[in-house]
Amino acid sequence: MVLEQDILPYFQWLWSGSADSLGALPRFLLVSLGVGLLGLLVGYSIAAARHGLLRGGDIVYRTISNGVREIFETSPRRVLALAGLAMKEAWRRRVVVALIVFFIILVFASWFLKKNHQDPAKLYISFVLTATTYLVLGIALLLSAFSLPHDFKTKTIYTIVTKPVRLGEIVLGRILGFTAVGTILLAIMGVCSYVFVNRSLDHTHTVEQSSLKNVSDADGAVIGKDGRTSLNSYHRHEVELDTDGQGVALNNYGHTHRVVKSGGKEVTLGADGIMNARVPQWGKLTFLDRQGVPKARGINVGSEWTYRSFVDGATQATAIWTFKNISPALNSEAQGGLPIGLIVRVFRTHKGIIGKPITGSIQVRNPETGLTSELIPFAAMDAKIDERAIPRKLTGTDNSELDLYKDLVSSNGELEIRVQCLERGQYFGFAQPDMYIRMRDASPIVNYFKVCLSIWVQMVIVISIGVAGSTLLSGPVAMLFTVSFIVLGFFRPFFVGVAQGTEYGGGPVESFYRLITQMNVISNLEDNLLTRLIQGVDWVYKTFMLSLAQVLPDFSSLSTVDFAAYGFNVPADLVWQDLTMCLAYVLGMSIVGYFLFRTREVAR
Amino acid sequence: MSDDIVIQTRALSKVYRDFWGRQKVRALKPLDMEIHRGEVFGLLGPNGSGKTTTIKLILGLLFPTEGEAIVFGKRSTDVSKNERIGYLPEESYLYRFLNAEETLDFYGRLFDMPAATRSERVDSLIKMVGLDKARKRQLQEYSKGMTRRIGLAQALINDPELILLDEPTSGLDPIGTREMKDMILRLKGEGKTVVMCSHLLADVQDVCDRIAILHQGELKELGRVDTLLTVADVTQIRARNLTPECQNEIREVISRNHGELMEMDNPSTTLEELFLSIVRDSEARPGRRANVEPVTSDT
């Protein structure tokens, strides 16, 4: 799973932020101030141009003072009445069609989703949750963008605004009403998709009797059997049984089974771990280069995506994760060892032996004393989650016996885990989240709910933007406005990159110039008047884009579908951050919607 | 502003502009008028004269280009004035997917009315406008007359002090028209102020105390209906049971005093009165052809 940005603790995120960004609250206040001042300037300019300097000022003053007063006059009963009306209206507009489309998708999904995928749960969960996201966002878009313009068109708004209804109540009522409708739809879709994934992927095997072989201990006494299961759902498992014929079918295709004896033969029960909610504790990643010199990053193997950096094989190059607060209490289910997960991106400069994984090593080191365990070799499967437990008893580099917690964890609870590639000419790529200590798993159902909550947050943000836009714009234009927010929101990092000049190809005008002149994105433009003109116009564009980016919701980071698909728990900090962001958008967009509404005449 | 004045307009004007701010039409030229508490005030004028624009400006649905409208001492854009106002638009712009009960309940909520008060008020209004049997039907199934009646009911949901009626009799049959006019007079009797705009002169004449006549956005006349309609140099005598001899004698008296007899004959009733008497007869004797007696002054 890719996590391009650290998930900060909630209050740090809210107040102080990270090293390169402000806290969310100060940023919200700054952006609000900026938007407010801009709105004031534009509003006064228009009012002054139409009514003169003094009357324009009076109009702006009255608009603001009325707005502030009306906030305190907001009536929950009126808001709820308007929300109820919005719900009835949505129902009348046949939002249930979205559910029908969703069920059709589920019915036919099995035709296209292959169960012979190496991780079918990831495929299924990713598909159903992505489909749910797009459907819910689509419905949110249509409802929010067309509702108020429809009221203006049919003039039903006349009978609303001639009652003591504050305009903010109309905006808020619409947002709440459509949110309620969307919530019902999302709840139904969430439950159905959860059942769909579990029912589709659940299966059993039988143990192939011919494959069973006795396993003996050092004294030659039979202590159990090894073998394999039948081939079902495109895969089989290795099994380990005790003498009573009970045991486990080992992890394959992302799940395990319990094996029991039934009707005189060993059969597996339903699949365990189709949906996981691993709780990772991430560490801090640093590197050693091939000479063993500490570096913040590994080397670049030519990938434009700089999320991972690489260590080269058979050198001193090492990826080092430092974990804090290590103790045996971290995972009581791990029976003394330290359960870790490791994801390796393998970059080969030669094929090696086809089908044979690249060998790497893991070492555990005490950052305080320097005590280090011997190399623990492993076979790196590209981009797969390799989960293992570091045993409690380890051998040191001087052949001494080491205890994981007593000898390799520093006095302040820190532990280093070092990973190297052992084959010359091959590379391992890592990002910070690629190694984690696996804590006790969270509930997969609760995790699924949290993912649905992140979809809900996106839906509410779209509704807020749609309703705010529709207070001033006609239905189709409001829809385009909202779609622009969604599209730019999904590609916000790229958008910001273009605005900051960190993307290749320059700004919009320079990119267009390169397109029509068939020039690549790397070459510098000639130093002439045209280039200076292009870059001057681009500067204006980029400034505007950077300003716009401050209010763009980052939908790519709001989505937590990958967490469920890859079997990771959605951190509570992230859930609270998303909910806070949602609240900020509802608040901000309600205020923007209110003032946009006030600037327009209800009648024509 | 005196407590007696409910609405006051000061040089209120409206210019409609296009997207680029260019003037399209001057819908209302500076208008100064006052509407007093408890009166029925009519805004008269042909189509496009500025009646509806004036109502919309008073309600705050439009922003004045110049001047201002003051309602209950507050600017027209102050939404709190709406607590005391009821408005029936030109057409009943209601949510057609709601039924009568839901519609009135919804508008009641907008006035922040408690549930018990709302329920009572909804029930009494539905009965008052004669929609008791259709209270559960969606408005999209209503006839135009029924829609106007539910529209009136929503305008009265808050028991308003000021009622603004835009073409209140538009789309109503003669019975509905009469009921609407009776309703206006009843509201006046309750001490409420009614402002209506219409181009149906007879309706205005029947119910209004004062009128303003607008033409091409300009106020042409403003005053009491009885004063405006009184013809000062003509005397009207209405008498009953006069013999032809007596009528001749009156003619002679007028002639002797140098007066000019303009007309002396039996007056005719209005078509509205005739229609209503036929309907009443039909309801009293269903299935039979109407048998309306010759009209007398007792009728």
What would you say this structure looks like, in words?
The complex is a heterodimer of chains A (604) and B (299). With 604 residues, chain A is an alpha+beta fold. Chain A folds into 3 domains: 75-201 and 443-491 and 568-598, no CATH class; 209-272; 279-439, Sandwich (Jelly Rolls). Chain A contains 17 helices and 21 strands. Chain A has helices at 10-16, 24-51, 53-72, 76-92, 96-112, 120-154, 157-161, 167-201, 404-407, 444-470, 475-490, 492-500, 508-516, 529-549, 555-558, 561-566, 572-599; strands at residues 213-216, 222-228, 238-241, 247-252, 255-262, 265-272, 280-282, 284-288, 294-295, 309-312, 318-323, 338-343, 345-348, 358-365, 376-380, 385-390, 393-395, 401-403, 415-421, 426-430, 435-438. In chain A, the strands form 5 sheets. Chain A has a 6-stranded antiparallel beta sheet, with no helix packed on it. In chain A, strands 9-8-11-19-14-15 form a 6-stranded antiparallel beta sheet, with no helix packed on it. Chain A has a 4-stranded antiparallel beta sheet with strand order 7-21-12-16, with no helix packed on it. In chain A, helix 6 (120-154) packs antiparallel against helix 8 and helix 12 packs across helix 14 (529-549). Chain A is globular. In chain B, helix 2 crosses helix 3. With 299 residues, chain B is of the alpha/beta class. Chain B is globular and about 70 Å long. Chain B has 9 helices and 10 strands. Chain B has a 6-stranded mixed beta sheet with strand order 6-7-8-3-9-10, with helices on both faces. Chain B has 2 domains: 5-230 and 270-284, P-loop containing nucleotide triphosphate hydrolases (Rossmann fold); 236-265, no CATH class. The longest helix of chain B has 16 residues, at 174-189. At the A-B interface, helix 3, helix 4 and helix 7 of A face helix 2 of B.
